[in-house]
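Q: I have 269 residues here and want to know how they pack in 3D. Can you give me a structure?
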Amino acid sequence: MAVFYTILIVFAALQVLPLVWLLFFSLKNNQEVFNTPLFSLPSVPRWENYVKVWVEGDIGRYFFNSVWITTVSVIFTVLLASFATFAITRMNWKLKYAMLGLFMVGLMIPVHSTLIPLFGFFTKIQLIDHPMSIILTNVGFNLPITIMILLGFYNALPRELEESAVIDGCSVHRMFFQIILPMTSPVMVTTTIINMIYNWNEFVFVNTFISSEQYKTLTVGIQNFIGQYTTDWGAIGATLMISVLPILLAFFFLSDKIVEGITAGAIKG
């Protein structure tokens, strides 16, 4: 058992090392970045790198954009996936298995292979350089994996509760919002965290569909510190550190919810 825990501690330390390196990286200037060992402490911690990216680099606006775009995308994804999963698992209609298969096909589509078709589509409906293009893309690509996670939990729910609700005169809408959704809160927390991590880290679609500074997110805003002749590596490190912190804190405080939500349906089923 001691050997097992030692191995776990070593692996945990290896996972933390990149974050330690990034913190030290963000507090150095360009000379120290290239002329000192990777994990060496900066001679003088340059906390002004963080002030610079927040004030001069307009990272505050990018951070706000990341927050609200991620929030809206997550809400729509989880709600739509819950509606679809409820219809597939709790209602009887002819094409429900065909619809489930259609959603699962979405898992096999390489995300970046859709860049050109999506760019043409959003150009036609005038959503290029509009945050709605990012929200629609996030929702579309996250729906399949969200539905797949919800399926096991929904299949394990006892049907007796629904039958009792119907006998008492409960409508389908009321049953879903007042009975089913509260019961599925553990797995909904799981899907929310997973979607949040994906949406927060999205780069390719934002970089492709958004060109104005007004709507750029934090992952794309890092490019402001990459110039034609010089690059401010300390500022880039500070921006990366700011972008990592929200996801790191969310995972640290809610990691047990992820495991609970994923395993709940498997254990009950």
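Q: Anything worth noting?
A: The mean pLDDT is 85. The CA atoms of residues 74 and 195 lie 6 Å apart.
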